[in-house]
Design a protein that fits this description.
Number of helices: 2
Strand content: over 45%
Strand order of the largest sheet: 1-4-5-2-3
Order of helices and strands: HEEEHEE
Number of strands: 5
Structural class: alpha+beta
Number of domains: 1
Largest sheet: 5 strands, antiparallel
Distance between the termini: 83 Å
């Protein structure tokens, strides 16, 4: 009887620890016409880009990585296409809960622009 419980526990425990996300939620945070101050009205649209910043807290209490930073996410999107600014930016917040901790993610999507000389 005791070895049967041990066998079940030895199978269930790794399954519980390795299971995927227990809970996930995504919701919009903000919509901005421009991430940075517009320096000029003359610009060229380079394309759409997405940036993200994430953080992980162990057991939902102890921070393991730096906190999420929406500005870092926007800068990542701008750098991905070598632009100067991000317009029509939409920010999303995402939370995923696992047995071992919580992952928070902020994503920003928008159009990357480069200023042109008039």
């Amino acid at each position: 009887m005791r070895s049967g419980r041990f066998a079940i526990l030895s199978i269930l425990l790794p399954l519980l620890l390795l299971c995927g996300c227990l809970y996930g939620r995504v919701h919009p945070l903000a919509i901005e016409p421009g991430v940075k101050v517009m320096r000029s009205s003359g610009y060229q649209v380079l394309g759409e880009a997405e940036g993200m910043s994430s953080s992980f807290t162990l057991l939902g209490i102890f921070p393991v990585t730096p906190r999420i930073d929406p500005e870092r996410a926007a800068d990542q999107a701008i750098r991905s296409l070598g632009g100067d600014n991000l317009i029509e930016a939409v920010y999303y917040s995402e939370t995923k809960v696992y047995i071992v901790g919580v992952v928070n993610v902020v994503r920003v999507k928008g159009k990357v622009i480069r200023y042109v000389q008039l």
